[in-house]
Amino acid sequence: MGPRVFSFFALLPLACSSPTSSAPDGAAGTGTSDSSTSGDTSTGADDGGTGASDASASQICASNSASFALAPEPAPVTFTDSVAMFHLNVQEHGWLDDSATLVTKVLDLFDSLDMRLDVYLTTWMTDDYCGKYPDLLKRILTTASISVSYHTRPPKPYRANFARCLDKDGGCVGNENYEDWYGLYKMDATQRYTEIKAFEEFGVDLKTGQRTTAEGGFKKLKRLYGRAPYVAGDEADGSSMQSVVDKVFQDMGVTFVISHSKENYEGDKRNGLLLKPEVIDAKVFTTDSSLDGDKCIEKTDGKDVFDCEMARCATSTKKPCTVAFKMHDNDFLADDSWWLTVYSKKTPEWDPTKTSKQLTAEAKDVMWKRYEQIVRRAAEMRSKYAVVGAKDWAKRAGK
Predict the structure, then answer these.
(1) What is the Cα–Cα distance from 85 to 73, expressed in whole angstroms?
(2) Contact at 8 Å (CB) between 252 and 225?
C-alpha cells in the first residue's frame, strides 16, 4: 500500500514521538525491537513437534518444531448474496508494544460480537509476537473465529513495487531494465524458485535483506499454526515473477492468494491457485477516495461506510459479492507503516530502528471510533450480509 491520507485528520497535528509507547501489562514499553533480524534465534528445547496443550506459548515459540493446538472449527455460517470480510494486517514492528495492545483490543471487539476476523501476519511479526507476546500469538492462532494468513513485505526481494520489473511484458531477463537489488530478474525460473522458497523457509535480516539461518517466513507460521495459513498476500511485479512466487506458495500448501487489481469471485484462479474472493477492497483506513475512486470511504460515520460499501454489491452480476474491509495495525497508531518508513529506498542497507510519527491521541480515538462503528454495524446486519472468513471460503472449496 502507498502513503495513507487521513482527510479527517487534516486539522489534527501529528505527535513527534520518540520510540516509547504504552505497553500491555508485563511489557517493557519500548517502541522498537532490539533485533535487526527476523527469524527464531532461540535455543529453546525441541519438544518433538507436538502441539501439546500442556506446553506454554513461550515454550512452543522457542521450539524448532512444536505447533499450537489446532483451532477448533467455527460454527457454520450461511452465505448470503453479499458477504463481508474483515482483514487486519499486522505489520508494525516499530511500535511493537502499541501493536500488541491494539491487536488485543481488536480481538476483544470481535470476540464480544462473535464475529469472523482474518489476521495477516508478516514474517517479522510472527517473530516479534513469538519473542515478546507469545500468549497473544497463541490467541490469534488458536481462536476458532480467526482465519490466519500471511503477507509478504519488503525487504523480501520479490515483493511488488520493491523488486520491480520495468518492462511492460514482465520480462527483464537479459537486460538491465529493472529495480532488483537481489538480482532475481537475472535468474531463470528454476533459480528464482529456489531463492524465493528459501526466503519463505528462513528468517530475514531487516538491515541487509539477506536470509538468516533461523527458521522464518511462511514455513515458520505454518509450523506454529499447525497447518498452512489460508491466504498468502504474495503480490509480485511482472507475470514471469508472479508465476514463480505463486508456485512457491502453492507447493508450501497455501489455499488462496490475493489480487487487488481485479474483481475476484469464488472459484477465480491465478496460476492455478484460487484467488481469495474480493469484489470490493474497502480501504477503511482512509477517507481519501482518490486512491481508487471509492466514495464510500469519504464518510466519517462507520455505520454509513458499511452500508455504502455493501450497497455497491447490488450491481454485481455474480454471487456471492465480497466486500473486504481492510485495516492495518499501524493505521490506528502512526502516520505510516514501519515497513514503508524503513524500506522507502529499494537497495540495502536499511535502518530497522526507524519509526513513523505516532498519531495524536485524538487522531487515534477518531480512527478507532470509526472502525468500531463499521464492525458493530456489520454485526447488526449479519442476517442480510454474512460476515465470513478465509476458513469459510476454504471449506466451500473443499480445502
Answers:
(1) 18
(2) no
Give residue-wise pLDDT tens across range 148-165: 999 999 999 999 888 776
H helices of 92-211, where?
96-113, 123-132, 134-142, 189-199
Residue type at position 174: G
For residue 359 the three cell numbers come to 498519531
Question: Is residue 56 within 8 Å of 68, Cβ to Cβ?
Answer: no
Please state, in angstroms and as integers, the Cα–Cα distance from residue 209 to each residue in 161, 196, 220, 384, following that order. 15, 13, 18, 46
Give the up-direction half-sphere exposure of residue 132: CA atoms within 13 A in the CB hemisphere: 26
Mean pLDDT of 362-371: 98
Task: Please determine, for residue 24, whether its predicted confidence score (pLDDT) is greater than 70.
Answer: no
Q: Angle at the Cα of 99 (from 93 to 105), degrees rounded to 5?
A: 165
pLDDT for 240 equals 83
Asked if residue 5 has pLDDT above 90, the reply is no
All domains of the chain in start order, with CATH:
57-396 (3.20.20.370)
Pick the closest to residue 46 from 37, 35, 55 (CA basis).
55
**Contact, 55 vs 134, CB < 8 A?**
no
Give the cell for residue 104: 488485543
Using CB atoms within 10 Å of the CB of residue 52, give its burial: 0 to 12 exposed, 13 to 18 middle, 19+ buried: middle
Quick check: 46 pLDDT over 50?
Answer: no
Q: Which of 168, 163, 179 is nearest to 235 (CA)?
A: 163
Q: How far is CA 83 from the centre of its chain?
A: 20
Alpha helices in 200-259 (DSSP H): 217-225, 239-251
- Predicted TM-score of the model (pTM): 0.88
With a cut of 70, say whether residue 382 has pLDDT above it.
Answer: yes
Expressed in angstroms, the distance from the first to the final Cα of the chain is: 29
**Cis peptide leading into 157, omega within 30 of 0?**
no
Does the pLDDT at position 10 exceed 80?
no
